[in-house]
Amino acid sequence: MSAAPTLYILYNADASVMGKLSYGYKKLTNKDKDKPTCAACDITHGGLSLDETPQWKAAKKDLVESGAVKDVKQFHRDELDQETKEFVQSQRLHFPMVLAQNEGSGLRSVMSSEELATFKGDPQTFVTKIREQLGGNQSAS
Q1: Burial call 12-31: b when 16+ CB within 10 Å, e when fewer
Q2: Are 108 and 101 in contact (CB under 8 A)?
Q3: Model pLDDT, residue 69
Q4: pLDDT number for residue 43
Q5: What is d(CA 90, CA 128) in angstroms, rounded to the nearest whole number?
Q6: In degrees rounded to 5, what are phi and psi of residue 51?
Q7: pTM here?
Q8: What is the DSSP string of the chain?
Q9: Strand partners, 71
Q10: What pairs with residue 6 in β-bridges?
Q11: Are 91 and 106 in contact (CB under 8 A)?
Q12: Measuring CA to CA, which residue among 12, 36, 7 is closest to residue 96?
């Protein structure tokens, strides 16, 4: 069994003050509940909160402690390193998304913005699907 990957959750928002204000405005004015402004934000922060929800903190901890993933890293669009930016652009991916990377390997897409929207902000459903996407790795080596 290969080592667990690092999971990257990439938000459809910027980390700057203006980015947060812009996201808040878009979130409040979005009428299409099937296409949230940032489904990843809904899963990890419950929508407009600046803090992670207790449910997400527990789910993230479980993913790591169970060995399903090595680590979970979360980034806004304006926080990405060059490698990640180039991968997202070359693959024509849309924010938000989830990527994974095993040590010594390149990035790969594991969940699209459309898939994230299907979880309706539920961290547990997200974790279940992530485990399936990553091959069910559930125990530490």
Answers
A1: bbbeeeebeeebeeebeeee
A2: yes
A3: 95
A4: 92
A5: 28
A6: -105, 145
A7: 0.84
A8: -PPPPEEEEE-SS-SSHHHHHHHHHHHHH---TTS-S-HHHHHHHTTT-SS--HHHHHHHHHHHHTTS-SEEEEE-GGG--HHHHHHHHHHT--SSEEEEE-TTS--EEEE-HHHHHTTTT-HHHHHHHHHHHTT---S--
A9: 6
A10: 71, 101
A11: no
A12: 12
- pLDDT score for 17: 67
Backbone angles phi, psi at 7, to 5 degrees: -100, 135
Query: Tell me, what amino acid is at 84?
Result: T
Between CA 91 and CA 79 the distance in angstroms is 19
Token couple for 2? 């290969």
- Residue 66 structure tokens: 């169970």
User: What is the separation of C-alpha 101 from the centre of its chain, rounded to a whole number of angstroms?
Assistant: 13
50, two tokens: 């600046």
Can you name the residues that pair with 11 across neighbouring β-strands?
Answer: none
Profile the chain (141 residues) by mean pLDDT over runs of 10 residues.
87 75 67 72 82 94 94 94 96 96 93 92 93 67 36
Pairing type for strands 108-111 and 71-75 reads unpaired
